[in-house]
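Fold this sequence, please.
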Amino acid sequence: MIFTPPETVSAPIDGSDDRFPIRRIFCVGRNYEAHAKEMGVVADREAPFYFMKGNYAYCPSGATIAYPPGTANYHHEMELVVAIGKGGFRIAADKALDHVYGYACGLDMTRRDLQTQAREKQRPWDLGKDFEDSAVLSPIVPSSRIGHPAKAAIALTVNGATKQSSSTAELIHPVPALIAHLSQYYHLQPGDLIYTGTPEGVGPVKPGDRIEGVIEGVGTIALTIGPAE
């Protein structure tokens, strides 16, 4: 070894001393109609599309993180997150939930100005989406305990003011459809996470802001924005 390999990135499991090793982070774009409209684009109803974050983007709920470099328009995006516990390839939609270990609250933090610049130039979104501390995650709750939150209220506040409020029932492509579609292109593995998309109401945050979110039956999430490095 020419250097010490990094430790396995893992997230806490609610009510357990065990942890959930994070393998890959898939993120679904424009999966709520109203959010697509506020972004000035048409929702993709025919099929979902994805971008990815490395597991180095993981950030635990409750953290205080630095305002990220290279942006002047840093946005919150509240999401339901699916934790895959059983691998599979070309999974049928009616069997998809068998592959879910559990669920969590997630924040897909976004350098919106960089994402928009990339989109306008038809370039990948990596600089706007895939960076350190951009995949905030609450403890994962096993689906064996809470079931599958297909019609759960989802909301986010910034400094106590409500910014996002919707329901997972509004997902254009619900969880079974996402797993079925994604598994046509990837061999899904235990440890994969799927951030399922954000409802309308995304917006900027600044140093000193406190973000808090909740998904009915799943849990809560919190993040404090610190000064820029």
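The domain at 10-228 is CATH 3.90.850.10 (Fumarylacetoacetate hydrolase; domain 2). The radius of gyration is 17 Å.
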